From TrEMBL:
Highest taxon of source: Bacteria
Keyword flag ATP-binding: yes
Major location (coarse): membrane
Cited Pfam families: ABC_tran
Name of the protein in its database record: ABC transporter ATP-binding protein
Keyword Ligase tagged: no
């Protein structure tokens, strides 16, 4: 296992913010941590990065306890924090090149380090800004640079804390492709936090829903959606009259409609219970068939 977390607990003073969190992830797996503000996502990720010391439980990242990770171990991780602002006067290409030199000593027979600067600029869509000073970038461009800084050392594990906050739809789409590529071609294990359910659905091999410091559900989008034994919403029209109902068997309803009204059935629309329904039910503490 690349990530192995068992019985993780975290306390800030008297407040226990993580209670018995356990999960694992293998090579090339994309795991998404979803949860409301204050659920403990950043705390979890910061403990795995070795930035915070846990109160209890066992944690291993690439077989090493993050509390005891050395430089070689750190060189195998990529980290994109929620936000950091510095290096404003550096130019984009210079900074990436400079940061990359740190990783050269940690290249292996199978992993070439660092990532070639021009290839990296192209991968994050910053080629045309390479000579600009960082302080002149827009918010979304700055976030792309954060991602580039996170992956310049060709990490085996990548931690991304809300990486797409501020991205426009095209940047988000390209970023999703990049994440898939890193996982599929480079076998990078990725732990990502987001508030965007659509993003979680698109990227995750597995979603962990964290609420008030506990994992309240884990699984694929399909598995999580199935937890809500929801009724589908069905809309249609016949001869210009619009209808709307809910049913647990939308396929059967559609079959009956076509048998009865044939080609007069128009505008048929079925909305299945979504990840959003499950998520909202879980974080509002409603009963869900776990
Ligand atoms: N340094 C700290 N000292 C005390 N409490 C903290 C500290 N850092 C975080 N907390 C508390 O721990 C809890 C979890 O915070 P965390 O930042 O991990 O949540 P999150 O899920 O990442 O939230 P968000 O979605 O808002 O980023 C919150 O209640 C927060 O107030």
């Amino acid at each position: 296992m690349v990530l192995a977390v068992d019985g993780l607990r975290m306390r800030y003073g008297d407040a226990e913010v993580l209670h018995d969190v356990s999960f694992s992830a293998g090579h090339g797996e994309v795991v998404v941590l979803l949860g409301p503000n204050g659920a403990g996502k950043s705390t979890t990720i910061e403990i795995l990065e070795g930035f915070r010391l846990r109160s209890a439980g066992t944690v291993e990242v690439l077989g090493v306890d993050p509390a005891a990770g050395d430089e070689r171990w750190r060189s195998r991780l990529g980290i994109v924090l929620q936000s950091w602002r510095d290096h404003g006067n550096w130019r984009i290409r210079e900074l990436l090149h400079h940061l990359g030199t740190y990783y050269a000593a940690y290249a292996t027979n199978t992993i070439e380090r660092p990532w070639d600067t021009d290839e990296l600029l192209a991968a994050v869509g910053l080629s045309s800004h390479a000579e600009q000073k960082i302080k002149t970038l827009s918010g979304g461009q700055r976030r792309r640079l954060d991602v580039a800084i996170g992956i310049v050392g060709r990490p085996e594990v990548l931690f991304l804390d809300e990486p797409t906050a501020g991205f426009d739809p095209e940047a988000r789409y390209e970023f999703h492709n990049l994440v898939r590529r890193l996982a599929a071609e480079h076998e990078t294990t990725i732990l990502l936090t987001t508030h965007d359910l659509d993003e979680a659905s698109k990227l995750a091999h597995r979603i962990l829903i964290l609420n008030a410091g506990r994992i309240v559900a884990a699984g694929t989008t399909g598995e999580l959606t199935a937890l809500i034994a929801g009724e589908d919403e069905v809309r249609w029209s016949v001869d210009g009259q619009h209808f709307h109902t809910t049913t647990p068997d939308s396929t059967g309803l559609a079959r009956d409609l076509f048998t009865q009204y044939g080609a007069s059935v128009r505008d048929l629309e079925v909305r299945r219970a979504s990840l959003e329904d499950t998520y909202l039910a879980l974080v509002r503490g409603q009963e869900v068939a776990l």
